[in-house]
Amino acid sequence: MSVLKRAIERWFSSRSPLTDRSLLSNRNIYIIPSRAGWLLAGVLLVMLLTAINYQNSLIFGLCFWVGSVFAVVIWHTWRNLASIELSVSEEVSGFVGGTVQIPTDVMAKDARFHHSIELLWRESEAKVSFDLDSALKTERLPFSSLHRGWNRTPKLEIRTQYPLGILTAWSVVQLKHPVLGYPKPIFDVLPAQYAGEGDDEFDQDAQPQKLQPGSDFYSLMPYVEGDSLSKVDWKRYAKTEELVTKEFIMPSSDDRWLREDDFANLDTETRLSALAGWVIRWTEEQKTFGLVLSGQDIGPDNGVLHQNNCLRALALFEANQ
Amino acid sequence: MKSTLDMSLHLSALRWMLFAQFASISIHLPRMPWWLTAFMLVCIVWRWQIIVGRWRFPSALLKTGLAVGGMVGIVVSFQKVSVEAAVNFLILAYGLKLIELHTRRDAYISLFLSFLVSALFFLFYTEIIAASVVLANAVIITAALIAMHSRITQRASVLLKQSVLYWLSAVPLMVIFFVFFPRMSPFWSIDVNQGAVTGISDKISPGDIAKLSQSDKLVFRARFLDGVPASPSSLYWRAIVLDNTDGRGWKAHSNANYAGAIVDWYGDQSSAWQVLLKRSEETLPYEVILEPTNQFWLFSLDGSLPEQPHVGLTQDFTLKYDKPIRQTLRYQSSMPTALTREPELFQWRLRRELQLPDNHNPKTEALALQIKSSSETPQQFIDNALKYFIKNDFVYTLKPPTLGEKANDEFLFDTQRGFCAHYAGALALMARYAGIPARVVVGYLGGEWNEQAGYLTVRQYDAHAWTEVWISGRGWVNVDPTSVVAPERIQQGLQEAVSEENTFLEDSFFSPHRYKAVEWLNDMRQTMDYLSYQWSLNVVGYDVQKQSSFWADLLKTWGSHVWLMVGLLIASAIAGPLVLWLLARQFRHFTVRRSGKLRFEQQLLCLLTDDDNEPEQQALLKLSPRKLFDMLKSNYPEEKALVDWLSQRYEALTYGDLAAGNTEEHKKHWLFMLKRLKQLKAN
């Protein structure tokens, strides 16, 4: 069975090349009776037997007519899927081990209204269903088996049973969704030269919750939803039940460098994870830092954009794709 | 057990489903026992209450109770296994399913069963109108299926239009299936019990036929295969011979018309009765399309022999079928142009045809003997007896007075008013009193000849009774006393015969047959009749026999290419609607795009000239569009930006990058531009 299944999947792969956009047409739409369709076929068989047994021309006629409607609806079901274009949407990224919602742009290239379309990964349960017209719609499907670097998303299936539910028209599409997997961050690894020591700059930075107020702590601001919880002044909360966030002043002079070499003792993936952890932490602390990866230097800079650049570099570091 | 609705269907879909289910049940309502009708209505109401969330699903106990109760009800109501019982059982099951419909799958089952439930209607009714009703149901069921699969609520008109489109575009394929799908003989045989059908019976007392004459129900249609007889509507169609009288009414001899009687079946070697018929070589072949009668007998012209399986000849020279006729039946036979029936009479037969009633009619006997004394031959006796009717001003009426025990005496001497059966019965009895073998024949006389289509329609009001007397050497001779009392009955039919007393179909005010004088009504009725004739001949009557003769015809016309031709036919049936659709789309594409553009250009020309200055507009049409826009710009210098925009858009839509867009978009563009152009004018 699984051999057969694999053969089918291989066949689909050969039929649906990896692309950025795919227009559904008679080349890639398949259609078979659904379970309800087989049920109707059964009812028609009963009707046919009745007609034969009672030699009733009109029951013959109705039976053949319903059967012919069945045949005609093949085309209508097909047409409900045809001319839909699927294309990759904006780039998404996530950490290995997390889940990302992968957007797919769908749009009907003809001016018709397409009813009850379903979009799903071929190998998972999650699906979305929607109606479609010539306006662009972005539908998102969850994806959780991320690995580092550019990810290849599973085959997408788009299908419909409209109008009568007796037939399923579907198509298998492989889109080159730009999905970037960042290394899964690790937060408790110190650079090799500091390992085992507890009183240095790195260590201090590694545990921002232990920061002494007054060093680069600047002021307290009322907590706003979205603020990092690690910056909440919990001591104050315990006393006054007032949530405040500690604002840190931008360190201007002492730029830090995050070097790949500092973690030379680790294997590549762990090393990248550790670097990712530090990138996130320092961005959260609004520190200015630079990243030195073999072959490229990034920064020094700060902010979310910088973080993304760094994570991107880490994600793509020696990535196969 | 679930107690809530778990179907993720919106209210509109649920409403459509219920509507479809109600429609397929409703056509059966009149045929159901009253309690089942009530039960189905309760199920539907219950279903609705579940849908709107007011009631819950019935408990398992209640459902079981309803199912058992319903089955007991069916058994009690129908007593024996019959199609009617089976159909009602299916309907009961369908109703029960309604109140325990939880999932989408249940909904599918219910809707698909609706097709089957609707189809079963055809077991009982096969008229065009029945087919239309079932088709309407099928369209509604399909619309319900569409509604079920829409995420949005679509308007009823949209759903129905779509459903009708599917059904119409499936017609060619359906026709191909209908014509070419091999018809086969039934696997097992079950009678469809039709219940009582009005029509002649094998027992008549005076007045029975008069009652029958109040019905305009179709009995059969006949057409003549080679040449039409001079007056097709004065042919006597025999159904049954009545030779046993009680002095009041007549009935068939006890073993004459039932299964088991000696009958010369088609294909049998023995021919007990056929040998008694001396038929001429020349015959008049005819075909009868008979509506269900629930009886064994067939209607045939004098001297007809069985010409197809299941048909047999009885000892009374009538045709019969080997089972009751429950469905429309087509059969052929032929009438000899000259005929002698039974020139010699067996002794047992002579005794039977001279049987006299225990209930003595002394005055009738006296009259018969008196006429006999003044006649030398049996033929003279008959002539004199008929003269007696004329001389005494007997009246032909649809409303004969009720007669007592000595019915013939009262009729001949007191009331002297009667319908065909009175005259036929009285004459036969008089002949028997005079020692001449005689009997009454019941059947149909007349009918309406449809000139264009060339067929005869015979209805219940054409029912007739006449007399048959046996004359040595000549055999059985038809004598119709009605022909002397009311000759117009024979020549013009019943309506004319009773026109003075105005009793024709007097209880059926709305019967179109009453108004034959209203020309357009009559034309319409004849057309409808023709349609229903074609329907029952070619659609309802399309059976194994018809199919094989159709094949034979095809082979004859197309020879060895027959498969190629059939293949082409099937291919065109499938491709036809597709091609039509493509053409329609192209056409629509063209018209919409053109009309938007045309309207814009028209408006542009109107702006540049006077509204109705045609010649000037024609001249402007020769200029290039750009030139026209330049003129517009000089006319409206302060709107230069707008005109520039219009000019650019015009070029883009006509020649440029927008020209390839889809129809709807184009329409929007042009309408938008038109609006701006009109604004220009208003400023």
From TrEMBL, chain A:
Instruction: Give the record's keywords alphabetically.
Output: Membrane, Transmembrane, Transmembrane helix
Protein origin, superkingdom: Bacteria
> Transmembrane ranges?
29-52, 58-78
| Annotated PANTHER family | SLR1927 PROTEIN, SLR1927 PROTEIN-RELATED
What is this protein identified as?
A: DUF58 domain-containing protein
From TrEMBL, chain B:
As recorded in Swiss-Prot or TrEMBL, the protein's gene is named: tgpA
Name the UniProt key words of this record, in alphabetical order.
Answer: Membrane, Transmembrane, Transmembrane helix
Cytoplasm in keyword set? no
Q: Please, which domain of life does this record's source organism belong to?
A: Bacteria
Ranges for domain Transglutaminase-like come to 412-483
| TM segment ranges | 32-48, 108-125, 131-152, 164-181, 562-584
Q: Does the keyword Plastid apply?
A: no
- Pfam families linked to this entry: TgpA_N (PF11992), Transglut_core (PF01841)
Name of the molecule in the record: Protein-glutamine gamma-glutamyltransferase TgpA
Q: Which organism is it from?
A: Litoribacillus peritrichatus
Q: Name the Gene3D superfamilies on file.
A: 3.10.620.30
Which PANTHER family does the entry mention? Answer: PROTEIN-GLUTAMINE GAMMA-GLUTAMYLTRANSFERASE
